[in-house]
């Protein structure tokens, strides 16, 4: 019987990989000493030392969401990574419109959205942004500054933009975004207060999984003059329900994330009894940098869009296409064509429903 023997001096692949990672960490420490480190507090209150000058930013986790914060500062050119696998389809094509250079960049995370440390360190980034505290700690242990941002309430969006404005020395851009956000809120609130219209009962959901994906939804439906049927004081991020509950709610308006989801609603016989379906009030949420209804810096536009659809008579003079074009031009720094704006407002490039 022949016995295979390991070649003397052979090194296991896993060991070699650890050596490469260790060398990358050493190289990073040797060449990327912050020019003038300063301390920022992230959205968990943690003090993080960051370089004074930040040119390359890595976004890890829900990358399109975090990227939208940088777009809101006109800083998409600072992004040092491409889109991850889950966002590689045509649905997210406007990410590459707002930051064209990212089309040729690799993703810096694994399929489970954890950081690919070897690739991340080799990318020689200045700062990492993440929405997961465990990820922030992992990256910090590898020798890179990492800032945690969170996103549950509307004020979190402005706070995150302010934090990144401080990071990138774009404080004026952050203030401009906050002013735009506040102006949209005030405009809608004033019109609703003056007219006191009846509130339509609204459900934003995934018809395939019967889930409502994000807590932020409850805010913009309420702020736009609607009554979310899932707004029961919940604090959890995602809310599930069954068909019987949906039929009992019987919403006036259904909002989905794609045209394919409209087809899914119409294909289910039991959905046809719903008031919203019988009235033809199934709306597809716009999709630009991300789904407007989920976590995105495009939230001020979400509010205007929802208000006009919930109360068309009250907001009939609002030119939503012009508002959208101005938002992307003035904040994202990107001039979109009329056709591109129309595509975004119609639900974005067609593909399967998205839950993030």
Describe this structure in words.
The structure is a single chain. The chain has 356 residues and is α/β, with parallel strands linked by helices. 40% of the residues are buried. The longest helix is centred in the middle third of the chain and has 25 residues, at 171-195. A hairpin with a 5-residue loop joins strand 1 (38-41) and strand 2. The strands form 4 sheets. Strands 8-6-10-11 form a 4-stranded parallel β-sheet. It has a 3-stranded parallel β-sheet with strand order 3-4-5, sandwiched between helices. It has a two-stranded antiparallel sheet with strand order 1-2. The protein has 2 domains: 22-170, 3-Layer(aba) Sandwich (Rossmann fold), CATH 3.40.50; 197-345, Nitrogenase molybdenum iron protein domain (Rossmann fold, 3-Layer(aba) Sandwich). Helix content is 42%, strand content 10%.
Summarize the structure in short.
With 356 residues, this protein is α/β, with parallel strands linked by helices.
């Amino acid at each position: 019987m022949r016995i295979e023997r390991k070649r003397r001096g052979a090194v296991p692949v896993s060991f070699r990989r650890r050596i490469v990672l260790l060398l990358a960490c050493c190289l990073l420490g040797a060449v990327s000493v912050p020019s003038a480190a300063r301390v920022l507090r992230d959205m968990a209150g943690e003090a993080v030392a960051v370089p004074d000058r930040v040119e390359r930013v890595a976004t890890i986790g829900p990358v399109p969401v975090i990227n939208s914060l940088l777009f809101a500062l006109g800083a998409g050119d600072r992004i040092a990574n491409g889109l991850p696998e889950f966002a590689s389809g045509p649905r997210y094509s406007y990410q590459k419109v707002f930051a064209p250079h990212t089309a040729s960049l690799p993703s810096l995370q694994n399929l489970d959205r954890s950081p690919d440390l070897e690739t991340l360190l080799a990318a020689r980034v200045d700062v990492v942004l993440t929405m997961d505290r465990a990820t922030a700690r992992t990256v910090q242990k590898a020798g890179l500054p990492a800032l945690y941002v969170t996103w549950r309430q509307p004020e979190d969006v402005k706070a995150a933009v302010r934090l990144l404005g401080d990071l990138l020395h774009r404080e004026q851009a952050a203030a401009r975004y906050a002013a735009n956000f506040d102006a949209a809120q005030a405009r809608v609130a004033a019109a609703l207060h003056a007219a006191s219209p009846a509130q339509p009962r609204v459900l934003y959901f995934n018809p395939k999984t019967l889930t409502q994906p994000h807590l932020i939804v409850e805010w913009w439906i309420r702020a736009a003059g609607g009554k979310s049927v899932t707004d029961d004081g919940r604090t959890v991020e995602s809310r599930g329900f069954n068909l019987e509950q949906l039929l009992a709610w019987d919403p006036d308006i259904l909002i989905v994330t794609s045209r394919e989801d409209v087809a899914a609603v119409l294909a289910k016989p039991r959905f046809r009894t719903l008031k919203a379906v019988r009235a033809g009030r199934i709306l597809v949420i716009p999709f630009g940098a991300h789904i407007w209804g989920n976590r995105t810096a495009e939230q001020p536009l979400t509010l205007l869009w929802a208000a006009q659809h919930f109360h068309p008579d009250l907001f009939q003079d609002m030119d939503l296409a012009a508002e959208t074009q101005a938002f992307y031009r003035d904040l994202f720094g990107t001039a979109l064509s009329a056709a591109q704006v129309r595509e975004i407002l119609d639900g974005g490039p067609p593909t399967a429903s998205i839950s993030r």
